[in-house]
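[Help] Beginner question about ligand-bound structures

Sorry if this is basic. My supervisor gave me a protein sequence and a SMILES string for flavin mononucleotide and asked me to "get the holo structure". I don't really know what that means in practice or what format the answer should be in. Inputs are pasted below exactly as I got them.
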Amino acid sequence: MSRRSHSASPSPRPLKRSKIDHLTKDDFKNGVFLAPMVRSGALPTRLFALKHGATMVWGPEIVDKAILHSKREVDPITGVVSYNGVSRAIFATHPIEKPYLIYQIGSADPGLAVQAAKTVIQDISGVDLNCGCPKPFSTHSGMGAALLTNPDLLCSILTALRKEMPPHITVTAKIRLLPSQEDTLKLVERIVNTGISALTVHCRTRSMRDKDKAKIEKLREIVDFVRGLGKGIAVIENGDCTGWEDAERVRKTTGADSVMIARGAESNPSCFSTEPLTDVERNLWPAYLRVAKYSDNHFSLTKFCVTQFKGRRIEVTKSESHELHQKLSRAKSYTDMQDFMGDHSCEEEFKAIVHAIEEKPPRENRMILPPEPQAEPAELPETCLVTPEDTQNPEPPGSGAPFLPHDFGKILALPDRTETTPTPM
Ligand SMILES: Cc1cc2nc3c(=O)[nH]c(=O)nc-3n(C[C@H](O)[C@H](O)[C@H](O)COP(=O)(O)O)c2cc1C
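Answer (accepted):
No worries, everyone starts somewhere. Holo just means with the ligand present. The predicted complex, written as structure tokens, is below.
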């Protein structure tokens, strides 16, 4: 819980008014997202992910009941909003991430899920239902992956959320594959019919471990199936994507609208950039510690996150890295890392990250791929002057313009995403 006195009102220094309106189904397309991660998806990690190109961020799963009796408090200096339980902050956020923040709920009860979502509604843009956690603490009480085999309950939670949330709050779900593709498709159809805005598919089954290769080849059929349902719902691939560049491979392989990254971002929250940070001990650790300290992130949580960071080492030697890891493992508070964090002000570091997100709104960071090639129509013999029976006439020339999103012009204007944008013909 915070050291500072809090107020229930918003920060006294309002942020620059965001031009971005609420989320639509299209916002879940052409994105590269930070996955929900308990512990590793803490506020500072989400801010660094947004600064370095994540289009949107999912918060860590929070079980419905855990948030219900929390007290919302706003730090009057930093603007950080904390939902505090008896002894600790259950969830912390900052207004800068609100346009990009999806709050993930763990639930096995439609009423509790709705109450949980209503508790945090003023600080988020969407709610996501976790239908994939295979851990016994989740499945024993019917939550997470247990919902995959209880589709009535799963869909009743999504239906209740959609009915009770105002239209500007999106409702989404994150599932795993079922052992049979046919069962996955049946489940997907039911989920899509609840009125959700997007569906994330973690391409592993409940019994697969993270070290098992994700079955991303299963996704294309699911993507085509959802497209065929005609509701404009994005399918988000999750599993084994390492960063921005790799997301292009994943989308080309699967046809997915977007990609979501967990462990790649746990290792390096700048993996969303075309140029992820290298030498993370020098280029990420100090800044992360400063942002975490200023935002009052619990030191043990910060220490856990920093310990996970790995990146390509160019200048930092193995022994320097080892020494820093030793220092961090001995540290009990931010004070023990103060000399390493340097004289640079934590407030300035925090303001810089807020400013970077304001200047380059993450939802405009899109990965626009050229349209997938359509199957070539069978070539007709030169002598054939009439369209043979049962053969479609080819489209008249000029009608085949590729679909361009409404914000295509803006996307082209982005400086460092140009290599992934198609050249208009
Ligand atoms: C540390 C950690 C915490 C996680 N916590 C959650 C969670 O809160 N909710 C959830 O749906 N998935 C959670 N996951 C699963 C990830 O979101 C993701 O589905 C999985 O790691 C596969 O993606 P990846 O191959 O990119 O790591 C977690 C994964 C990790 C590594």
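A couple of things worth pointing out: Residues 383-425 have pLDDT under 50 and may be disordered. Residues 35-40, 60-61, 104, 130, 132-133, 174, 202, 210, 238-241, 261-264, 266 surround flavin mononucleotide (CB under 6 Å). Feel free to follow up in the thread.
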